[in-house]
Amino acid sequence: MQKSDAGIREMTQSAAERAFALSGRAAQYALWIRKAGYLQIGDLFARAGEYTREHGAMLVELSSGCQIPSVDALLADMVQRLHECPYERFAQTAAHADLPQTAELFRGLGQIESTQCRCFSMLLENIRSGSAFEKTTENYWICRVCGALYRGVRAPQVCPVCAMPREGFSLYAENY
Ligand SMILES: [Zn+2]
After folding, report:
1. How many domains in the chain?
2. In this structure, what CATH number is given to the domain that contains residue 152?
3. Which pTM was predicted?
4. What is the pLDDT of residues 121-157, one digit of tens each?
5. Per the count of CB atoms within 10 A, which of 4, 13, 69, 89 is most buried?
6. Taking phi first (over 0 means left), then psi (-120 to 50 degrees means alpha), and beta for anything else, what does residue 86 get?
7. pLDDT tens digits, 161-175
8. How far is the CA of 168 from the centre of ligand 1 (A)?
9. Is 2's pLDDT higher than 60?
């Protein structure tokens, strides 16, 4: 990017940050408004939040010259961020302040983020080792677009029903 473009790039990045912050706020307000019983207004807030998040994504792509990070880079970044979770520390601070309910909430949230961190770590390992769509034994794979089931050691290159590429498949599991 040329030097004269630096200001435009900074402006675009700033617009993206604003869009993501606004999107998060709209999603938060949607929860509160739905709790107050105003479901239509809550839905409108939620949708505005989704639109605004898309705007943020567009602006990020624009400011990065449309260079979207690789999936494993995104997974690695998320693992790092979740790994740096401060909630256990916050729980201890709250416990010392004699706020056991707050401490318990932070501890619970920390455990959830720890589980997410482990999940994303495993997915990252699968992507890096090439075992995300290829296992050592036969499995059922489900197309996450159309629901087609396919049995094999590896997911099909494209879905035989809807032509979704392999990346749209996941291992099929029933947990009910
Ligand atoms: Zn399909």
Report:
1. 3
2. 2.20.28.10
3. 0.77
4. 999 999 999 999 999 999 999 999 999 999 999 999 9
5. 13
6. alpha
7. 999 999 999 999 998
8. 8
9. no
Picking from 82, 83, 166, 89, the residue whose alpha carbon sits closest to that of residue 131 is 166
Sheet holding 134-143, edge to edge: 149-154, 134-143, 169-171
Ligand 1 centroid–CA 149 distance in Å is 8
CB 158 within 8 A of CB 175: no
CA 143 to centroid of ligand 1, rounded, Å: 5
- Cα(152) to ligand 1 centroid in Å equals 15
Please indicate, yes or no, if residue 29 is contained in any of the structural domains.
yes
Q: Determine the distance separating the centroid of ligand 1 and the alpha carbon of 156, expressed in angstroms.
A: 10
Residue 170 CA to ligand 1 centre (angstroms): 11
Q: Classify residue 118: in a domain, yes or no.
A: yes
Report CA(144)–ligand 1 centroid distance (Å).
7
Structural domain of 48: 3-63
Do 33 and 79 belong together in one domain? no
| Rounded distance from Cα 148 to ligand 1 centre (Å) | 5
